[in-house]
C-alpha cells in the first residue's frame, strides 16, 4: 500500500467531491486525510487529500482521478508521499537561514532533498560542503547577470529541481527568471516592507519605536517583495531593545517563517489563487 498526496484546484461547482471520491475508488484507494476550501472571491475550489492505494505509481492514480474529474477543468497534482521534493537553496553571505534549513533537513524535519546550494559568493562553501552537499558559485554582476541566471536554469533542469529557496540571497531576480520559475521560488525578508526599505531596516525600526518585528515568506514575482504570502512570524519588542537586539530577534523570525513555508510547500499544503495562497495546516 502506498500513500499519495493530491492537490486539486478547479472552478467551484456541485459534484466535485463526489467525482473525486469516485476517482479514488477506481484507484482502489482510501482517503485518510482531506482538507478543502471554497474561495468566494475567485469562485475557486481547493483541496488537499492523502490517499492510500495499492497502485504502484502516482501516474496510475492520477489517470483515474483525471478521468473522474474530466468535466470540472481540474488542476491536479499527485505525488507519492515518500517521493520528496527537490529543493535548491540560494544564499549570499548571511548564513542563519541556510544553517537552519540544513539542520532541519538533517534531522528529518523538512521532507526535502537538497541536491545543491548556489551562491553568488564563496563565503559559505565550507559550511555547505561540511554537510555533504555540493556548492556551486555563480558570481553575479550587472554584466554577467543574464549568464548567471541562464546557468541557474540549467542547474534547475539538470537536477530536476522542484522549487528554489532564497535563504537571504541578496540579488534581485530578473522578470524573465521570475516568470520561468513562477510559483516555485520562496523568499524571506523582514516584514517591515514596504516600509523601512534599504540598508539597516532594524535600525530604522528602532528609530521609529517599532513594537512588533517579524518576517514574511512569500513566492517570488516580478513585483519585488510583493508575491503571494505563505507564512509570517512576529514577535513583540519594547523600547529597551537595542538595534542589535532587534537584528538578532529578526534572524529568529526569518528562520521560523522560512522553515515553515518550505515545509508547507514541500508537503503540497500551499495552493495559489492569483495573488493569494490557501495554506492547509498539518
Break the fold down into its secondary structure elements and pairings.
Elements: E1 2-11, H1 16-26, E2 30-39, E3 44-53, H2 58-68, E4 75-80, E5 85-91, H3 96-106, E6 112-113, E7 117-119, H4 125-130, E8 135-137, H5 145-158, E9 163-166, H6 175-180, E10 185-190, H7 201-207, E11 212-219, E12 229-236, H8 243-266, E13 270-273, E14 276-279
Parallel strand pairs: 5-6, 5-7, 5-9, 7-8, 9-10
Antiparallel strand pairs: 1-3, 1-4, 2-3, 10-11, 11-12, 13-14
Structure characteristics:
282 residues; alpha/beta; Alpha-Beta Plaits; Rossmann fold; 2 domains; eight-stranded mixed β-sheet; four-stranded antiparallel β-sheet; 14 strands; globular
Number of strands: 14
Helix/strand/pairing class, anyone? alpha/beta
**What distance separates the N and C termini?**
22 Å
Fourth-tier CATH superfamily name of the largest domain:
Formyl transferase, N-terminal domain
Characterise this structure.
The structure is a single chain. This protein is 32% helix and 30% strand. It has eight helices and 14 strands. The longest helix has 24 residues, at 243-266. The chain is globular, with a radius of gyration of 21 Å. Strands 5, 6, 7, 8, 9, 10, 11 and 12 form an eight-stranded mixed β-sheet that branches. It folds into two domains: 2-80, Alpha-Beta Plaits (2-Layer Sandwich), CATH 3.30.70; 85-279, 3-Layer(aba) Sandwich (Rossmann fold). The chain has helices at residues 16-26, 58-68, 96-106, 125-130, 145-158, 175-180, 201-207, 243-266; strands at 2-11, 30-39, 44-53, 75-80, 85-91, 112-113, 117-119, 135-137, 163-166, 185-190, 212-219, 229-236, 270-273, 276-279. It is α/β, with parallel strands linked by helices. Helix 1 crosses helix 2, helix 3 crosses helix 8 and helix 7 (201-207) crosses helix 8 (243-266). The two termini are 22 Å apart.
Amino acid at each position: 500500500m502506498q500513500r499519495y498526496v493530491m492537490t486539486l484546484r478547479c472552478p467551484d461547482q456541485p459534484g466535485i467531491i463526489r467525482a473525486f471520491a469516485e476517482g479514488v475508488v477506481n484507484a482502489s484507494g482510501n482517503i485518510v486525510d482531506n482538507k478543502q476550501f471554497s474561495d468566494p472571491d475567485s469562485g475557486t475550489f481547493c483541496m488537499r487529500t492523502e490517499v492510500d492505494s495499492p497502485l504502484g505509481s502516482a501516474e496510475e492514480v492520477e489517470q483515474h482521478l483525471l478521468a473522474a474529474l474530466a468535466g470540472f477543468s481540474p488542476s491536479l497534482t499527485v505525488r507519492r508521499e515518500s517521493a520528496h521534493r527537490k529543493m535548491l537553496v540560494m544564499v549570499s553571505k548571511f548564513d542563519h537561514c541556510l544553517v537552519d534549513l540544513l539542520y532541519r533537513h538533517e534531522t528529518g524535519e523538512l521532507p526535502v532533498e537538497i541536491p545543491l546550494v548556489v551562491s553568488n559568493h564563496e563565503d559559505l562553501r565550507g559550511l555547505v560542503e561540511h554537510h555533504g552537499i555540493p556548492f556551486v558559485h555563480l558570481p553575479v554582476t550587472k554584466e554577467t547577470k543574464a549568464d548567471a541566471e541562464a546557468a541557474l536554469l540549467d542547474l534547475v533542469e539538470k537536477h530536476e529541481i522542484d522549487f528554489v529557496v532564497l535563504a537571504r540571497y541578496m540579488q534581485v531576480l530578473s522578470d524573465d527568471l521570475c516568470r520561468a520559475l513562477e510559483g516555485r521560488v520562496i523568499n524571506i525578508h523582514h516584514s517591515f516592507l514596504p516600509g523601512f526599505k534599504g540598508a539597516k531596516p532594524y535600525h530604522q525600526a528602532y528609530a521609529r519605536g517599532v513594537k512588533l518585528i517579524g518576517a514574511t515568506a512569500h513566492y517570488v514575482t516580478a513585483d519585488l517583495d510583493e508575491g503571494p504570502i505563505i507564512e509570517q512570524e512576529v514577535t513583540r519588542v519594547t523600547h529597551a531593545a537595542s538595534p542589535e537586539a532587534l537584528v538578532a530577534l529578526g534572524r529568529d523570525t526569518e528562520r521560523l517563517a522560512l522553515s515553515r513555508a518550505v515545509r508547507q510547500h514541500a508537503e503540497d499544503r500551499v495552493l495559489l489563487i492569483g495573488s493569494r495562497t490557501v495554506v492547509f495546516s498539518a
